[in-house]
Write a structure and sequence with these properties.
The chain is built from 11 helices and 4 strands, in the order E-H-H-H-H-E-H-H-H-H-H-H-H-E-E. By secondary structure, the chain is mainly alpha-helical. The longest helix is centred in the last third of the chain and has 66 residues.
């Protein structure tokens, strides 16, 4: 198949850059719906292909549009004005990601032009594969590396998740280049008479591949959400049952103490302490058990004297006074 690389179309740099920025931002916002948390790396990033195609069509001077479009798309996800530090971080993240996207598009277009020349007639399928490999998998190493590193440095993800985000980022950008770049060139590149003849042969397979990729991703995502929901519910049920069993066992401890008191009628500190120490050994979740006796005013002196005889000299029923200090409790029934 004979293919001609596009001739750059004369244009106003500012207008071309702003057009690219708008298209990049809109495509980016749509693509972020497919992103994995925290919402930056996605399995299909169409703007990467759009950026390289636009550089091939309009030249490297449209690079500000790539950065601006990427910045706007990612600012939607990153923006956080809860504090000054969070605000600065939320602006720095899309700045870094935009720089990576810009370098990637410029590198991809430069590799294609340097290897194949301008204009170049691609006579063999090997040349086409070379062009797609340079613009896709090779150049897309840049944005994936810069983007994932930015997320780690900014604290959005831990280093342990660097690999999965890098791979997802690289795959998403690569698919975007392989699908969108040929599609955009077939409709926008010059000379139109050459590209017009292969629009159908190029567009239909790419649009079909894009639709299939979206369907597969949507199905896989739905299945994963169902799996995670079932896993969460199973773990939550197990945890709830474990917690209920634990609480029931501690309530049974109180019933045991109640049974001890009911069987003896009266308890002293030593008997109670001996009994509960064994409970602490079997129920490590217990923090404290106390024996709170009701002492009437008529029993107060006898009670205090009995405690003193158990070895606590100077014992008296006390309370905190207005100054917050312990003092002998006032008389009351």
């Amino acid at each position: 198949m004979k293919v001609v690389l596009p001739r750059r179309v004369p244009c106003r740099p500012i207008g071309a850059a702003l057009t690219l920025a708008a298209a990049y931002a809109v495509a980016g916002w749509l693509g972020l719906w497919l992103a994995i948390p925290p919402g930056y790396a996605t399995v299909l990033w169409l703007p990467s292909g759009l950026a390289i195609a636009w550089v091939l069509l309009r030249g490297a001077r449209v690079w500000p549009g790539i950065w601006l479009g990427s910045f706007l798309a990612n600012l939607w996800t990153a923006f956080d004005a809860t504090s000054t530090g969070a605000l600065l971080t939320s602006v720095a993240i899309p700045i870094g990601i935009g720089a990576g996207a810009t370098l990637q598009a410029l590198l991809g277009a430069a590799l294609v032009h340097r290897t194949l020349g301008v204009p170049t007639r691609l006579q063999r399928g090997g040349k086409i594969i070379t062009a797609l490999a340079l613009g896709g998998p090779v150049s897309c190493l840049v944005s994936a590396t810069v983007g994932a590193t930015t997320l780690v440095v900014s604290g959005q993800i831990p280093w342990a998740l660097f690999g999965i985000h890098w791979v997802t980022w690289w795959v998403g950008d690569t698919l975007g280049v392989l699908i969108v770049t040929p599609l955009a060139l077939s409709w926008l590149a010059e000379p139109r008479e050459i590209w017009r003849r292969r629009r159908t042969s190029v567009s239909l397979p790419l649009v079909g591949a894009l639709a299939l990729a979206l369907v597969v991703f949507a199905y896989t995502r739905a299945q994963e959400q169902v799996r995670l929901k079932l896993l969460f519910e199973r773990k939550a049920t197990t945890l709830a049952q474990s917690l209920q069993n634990s609480l029931d066992s501690y309530v049974n401890v109180l019933h045991a103490v109640e049974g001890l008191y009911a069987s003896s009628g009266t308890l002293n500190r030593h008997v109670f302490e001996t009994f509960v120490q064994r409970l602490y050994a079997h129920y490590p979740g217990l923090q404290a058990l106390s024996l709170d006796l009701r002492v009437t005013d008529a029993q107060r002196k006898v009670y205090e004297q009995a405690i003193k005889q158990e070895g606590i000299a100077g014992f008296e029923i006390s309370e905190r006074n207005a100054q917050g200090q312990l003092a002998r409790a006032a008389r009351r029934p």
